[in-house]
Design goal:
The complex is a heterodimer.
Chain A lengths: L1 H21 L5 E5 L5 H17 L2 E4 L8 H12 L6 E4 L8 H9 L3 E5 L19 E3 L3 H16 L3 E7 L5 H15 L4 E8 L4 H14 L3 E6 L2 H13 L7 E5 L3 H9 L4 E4 L2 H17 L9 E2 L4 E3 L16
Parallel strand pairs in A: 1-2, 1-3, 3-4, 4-5, 5-11, 6-7, 6-8, 8-9, 9-10
Antiparallel strand pairs in A: 10-12
Helix pairs in contact in A: 2-10, 5-6, 7-8
Chain B lengths: L2 H7 L7 H8 L1 H16 L6 H10 L1 H15 L7 H21 L4 H15 L2 H12 L4 H20 L10 H6 L2 E6 L3 E4 L15 E5 L1 H17 L1 H12 L1 H6 L4 H27 L11 H11 L11 H20 L4 H21 L5
Antiparallel strand pairs in B: 1-2, 1-3
Helix pairs in contact in B: 3-16, 5-11, 5-14, 5-15, 5-16, 6-7, 6-9, 6-14, 7-14, 8-9, 8-14, 11-12, 12-14, 15-16, 16-17
The chains are: A alpha/beta, B mainly alpha.
Chain lengths: 325, 361
């Protein structure tokens, strides 16, 4: 009798342990952000919502202290070692240094989608040593920079000196925005780009550099602030110099502060990327592919596009979802 | 070899009055030299506007460098100043948000938040000081620990977002000027005259930012504390020789705790001021390296990392050297990447020349 009971219990235990293995295993997703800032926090929210909806397991890696492969790679490798992931959503902090580590992860069986930034030149459709990721989902930063220049030109009557406050020279997204803005300004013969400065994500440095630029070229009429901290710093510098209204500000990234700035009249144009949507699209395309690898063709580039906030539409209810909060 | 007699023995320039002045105030002379050169090479460098801008934006570095001066004189170091500043900034901002939401008036909310944030900013220093004196943990490690704790708390309070939605009054006070002058026409106090058109803003002269009397008063108070009275004497004594200080009856442990509390308080003050200057509560980003440049300013000002030497006004000059180096090179049209090299080289040159002078006091 006892032996029978034990045998039944053992079989039950094995069944209980093995059963989950027979049922559909939940896909495991890892999100490796670029750096601790509102843009990536908003992206995480999009990813969380999409993963919860799809019933996937999500692990969010530690946010790197500063932008750069030396900060991101150790975190990535430590987190990957914790278990098998089916999908990795990563914002690579270097176009070159992340190629090898990501290839190693891909070879072990994890599918990769790069969000916001890319490796190599971002074109995964041609055969190369960086064509293994499924897709690059991010803003077309060059196009964004160009559109910014065109919007600014419209505000300035297509003439005058403009200045660009950028952030990290080692980020692909930033470099692209500067390239796009420079090319955009060049299309207007009566406009001149007098300088590009790099504040390395420090708001007060952006303030200092913008004030110096305004001091050097007293007839600057337009300024482009490239990301969260450079935009806020440049905007504050214009206010400090008492030049609100005399200098048109266009800012990248719809943080609460930039939107408040727009509402107060301290800036004239805010470009909103769609980090939440980047995250959501990453999850959706990744899971779609994992379910049916043979038939699903993931586009190698997915560009969610931009929204422009102006004084006219900033209070619209339909625009509120694009603010980073 | 005794420094003083070596100076007296030196023939020619270094032994002369001018030479000794140069040796004792090298940072100041270097600053003056820089100002002269940049006024020639820089576009619009020599202007009240530019100088005011630079000094106004150095308010936080002035406070942090002063904090480090006290600590470095005792032979220690405080790596947490940058993050304690960030913590105070988001804490003050959070308090303002909470008080406003509870229906308090704007002025009362701001005043109360400032007082509470300042009071709370002594806590990190108490903890660091306690760990250093009670458990004999080296200051580098103890303040590195606080570095992490302060940063973590700041990120937790702010959730990683700059804290916006604060009253407009704040940047108005933080960036306002005492005098607004339209040359030949009128003088207005504390605010731009009503109805003054934006298109004519550039004609207006703005003089004396509010931050200037604030920082001058602060520096005077700190320099006084360091120079006169037993607090300053004990600080130098501990830095000069810990053993001799103990033997002469100074309560070294208690004094060191006071020093780190002071450092933490000044960082908190800088953080609260930051809210007024930027109009938002901002956590300190990892690559801001405030502590790095605060220590650099103190060393350029002539202090010794081994302790026993240093003055508040010298550190202030050090802050200005670093600031005008960046500003002057930018206005001279030096491209950013070359500027990084130039700042690095010039800093080393400044300190190398300082070392060439014999130690005179």
């Amino acid at each position: 009798m006892k032996k029978t009971v034990v045998a039944v219990l053992v079989v039950l235990m094995i069944a209980l342990v093995a059963l989950p293995g027979f049922s559909q295993a939940k896909p495991r997703i890892l999100f490796m952000p670029g750096v601790a800032d509102p843009f990536y926090y908003t992206m995480e929210k999009g990813i969380k919502a999409a993963a919860a909806k799809a019933g996937a397991d999500l692990v969010v890696a530690e946010y790197p202290k500063a932008w750069g492969p030396e900060n991101q790679i150790p975190i990535l490798q430590a987190t990957i070692a914790r278990g098998k992931f089916d999908l990795l959503l990563i914002a690579p902090t270097s176009t070159d240094a992340l190629k090898a580590p990501l290839k190693a992860i891909y070879d072990k069986g994890t599918e990769i989608i790069t969000v916001d930034t890319f490796i190599g030149d971002g074109d995964y459709s041609k055969a190369s040593d960086y064509s293994f990721p499924l897709s690059y989902i991010g803003s077309d930063n060059q196009l964004g920079g160009k559109q910014m220049a065109e919007q600014l030109a419209k505000l300035l009557g297509e003439k005058g000196k403009v200045y660009c406050q950028a952030t990290n020279p080692d980020a692909s997204s930033v470099q692209d925005r500067v390239k796009g803005f420079t090319a955009g300004v060049a299309e207007f013969p009566k406009m001149k780009l007098v300088g590009v400065e790099w504040c390395q994500d420090i708001q007060q440095k952006a303030q200092e550099q913008t004030l110096a630029a305004l001091q050097k070229d007293k007839d600057i009429v337009g300024i482009f602030g490239l990301n969260v901290f450079s935009a806020q710093g440049a905007s504050q510098a214009v206010v400090n110099a008492g030049l609100t209204g005399a200098v048109k500000m266009c800012l990248w990234d719809a943080t609460l502060d930039n939107i408040a700035s727009l509402k107060k009249g301290n800036c004239d144009l805010v470009l909103a990327q769609k980090p939440g949507e980047m995250g959501t699209l990453g999850v959706e395309w990744g899971l779609k592919y994992l379910k049916d690898k043979k038939n699903v063709k993931v586009p190698k580039k997915v560009i969610p596009g931009f929204m422009f906030f102006t004084a006219q539409n900033v209070n619209d209810a339909s625009m509120a979802q694009y603010i980073y909060q | 070899m005794d420094g003083e007699s070596a100076a007296k023995d030196k023939e020619g320039f270094l032994g002369s009055g001018a030479g000794r002045f140069l040796a004792m105030n090298w940072a100041l002379c270097f600053l003056a030299l820089m100002l002269v050169i940049f006024s020639l090479t820089g576009q619009n460098f020599l202007s009240i506007n530019n100088f005011q801008n630079v000094v106004h934006l150095q308010t936080v570095p002035f406070l942090l460098a002063s904090a480090e001066t006290f600590v470095i004189i005792t032979g220690g170091i405080d790596l947490s100043v940058g993050f304690v500043m960030g913590l105070a900034s988001v804490f003050a901002a959070k308090l303002i948000q909470v008080f406003l939401a509870s229906g308090m008036g704007v002025d009362a909310a701001i005043l109360l938040s400032v007082l509470i944030a300042l009071a709370a900013s002594v806590i990190p220093g108490l903890v660091s000081g306690f760990v250093i004196t009670r458990f004999k943990v080296p200051p580098f490690i103890a303040t590195l620990g606080m570095w992490g704790i302060a940063n973590g708390l700041a990120l937790k309070i702010s959730q990683g977002y700059p804290m916006a939605g604060l009253p407009d009054k704040l940047p108005g006070i933080g960036n306002g000027y005492l005098l607004y002058v339209l040359p030949g026409r009128f003088v207005s106090f504390f605010a731009k005259p009503d109805g003054f058109p934006d298109s004519r803003i550039r004609e207006l002269w703005r003089l004396v930012p509010f931050s200037l009397p604030f920082i001058i008063a602060a520096l005077f108070a700190l320099a006084f504390a360091l120079k006169r009275g037993s607090f300053g004497r004990h600080t130098y004594a501990i830095g000069g020789s810990m053993d001799a200080s103990i033997r002469s009856g100074i309560n070294v442990d208690a004094h060191l705790v006071k020093i780190y509390v002071l450092s933490s308080f000044l960082s908190g003050l800088a953080g609260v001021f930051n809210v007024f200057q930027t109009g938002i509560g901002n956590y300190t980003t990892f690559n801001a390296q405030y502590e790095f440049f605060a220590v650099a300013a103190v060393v350029v000002g002539g202090a010794s990392l081994a302790g026993g030497k240093g003055r508040i006004w010298s550190s202030a000059v050090g802050v200005l050297v670093l600031a005008f180096l960046e500003n002057g090179l930018a206005l001279s049209g030096v491209l950013p990447f070359y500027r990084y090299i130039a700042v690095g080289v010039l800093l080393v040159v400044a300190v190398v020349i300082d070392k060439l002078f014999p130690d005179v006091r």
